[in-house]
Write a structure and sequence with these properties.
By secondary structure, the protein is α/β, with parallel strands linked by helices. It contains six helices and twelve strands. The strands form two sheets. The chain has a nine-stranded mixed beta sheet with strand order 3-2-1-4-5-6-7-11-12, with helices on one face. A three-stranded antiparallel beta sheet has the order 8-9-10. The longest helix is centred in the C-terminal third of the chain and has 24 residues. It is globular, with a radius of gyration of 17 Å. The protein binds 5-O-phosphono-beta-D-ribofuranosylamine (GRF).
Length: 222
């Protein structure tokens, strides 16, 4: 029997939910997390169906029922807290969050973003990498701050940009790396090896100067 304490986790996802599925697979393979809740702003999000299929509690909360973005975010995050989650994972959650909702979760909320942050915060990251003529692209997992895609970066995965690549090519080739990157970063948090402190990210008790880099299935110091 696994006697390790499981970290209670909630996931927010607006769409397809392939990163959620990667977390579910990792959990099934021994990642020490307890998936308490999957919540979405879209009732029809496939992510909710994946959660249901895995027996995870779900919540579909429609922003249309709220007067302001802030009201919605505060109610959503209250429900997330009620689930007992101690880590909140944004996995394709396509909303800008109010600072009053984000701040209590500082150091306890991570996001996966398809660019090598600080490059290309926001949308259309693959297109922007191609337009810039980048020869390298990638994905990042970062702690969430009130600034969109602006919090401290925990870990990154890199891919080459090949001649003739389209946006769709980059998205397709990067996704399997996201699926390894996110569970690997969550594992370090669940194992207590990686924390956000007042001084920045600490990894094994030492300040992390550069994002960890994905090497195969493992995150390594750059
Ligand atoms: C991923 O590319 C993620 O990096 C971005 O949104 C996409 C979500 O995909 N934030 P999925 O819903 O996890 O399949």
């Amino acid at each position: 029997m696994n006697t390790r304490a499981l970290l209670p986790v909630a996931v927010l996802a607006s769409g397809r939910g392939s990163n959620l599925q990667a977390l579910i697979r990792a959990r099934d393979a021994g990642l020490p997390i307890d998936l308490r809740l999957v919540a979405s702003d879209r009732t029809e999000a496939p992510a909710l169906r994946h959660a249901e299929a895995a027996g995870i509690a779900t919540l579909a909360l429609d922003p249309a029922g709220y007067a302001t973005r802030r009201d919605y975010d505060l109610d959503l995050f209250r429900r997330v807290a009620e689930s007992g989650a101690q880590l909140l994972v944004l996995a394709g959650f396509m909303r800008i969050l109010d600072a009053d909702a984000v701040n209590p979760w500082r150091g306890r909320m991570v996001n996966v973003h398809p660019s090598l942050l600080p490059k290309y915060r926001g949308l259309h990251t693959h297109r922007r990498a191609l337009e810039a003529g980048d020869t390298e692209h990638g994905a990042s997992v970062h702690f969430v701050s009130p600034e969109l895609d602006g919090g401290p970066v925990i870990a990154q995965a890199r891919i080459d940009v090949r001649p003739g690549d389209t946006e769709a090519d980059l998205a397709e080739r990067l996704l399997p790396f996201e699926h390894r990157l996110l569970p690997a970063a969550v594992a370090l948090i669940a194992d207590g090896r990686l924390k956000l402190t007042a001084q920045g990210i600490a990894f094994d008790g030492t300040p992390l100067r550069q994002p960890l880099q994905l090497d195969g299935e493992t995150l390594r110091i750059a």
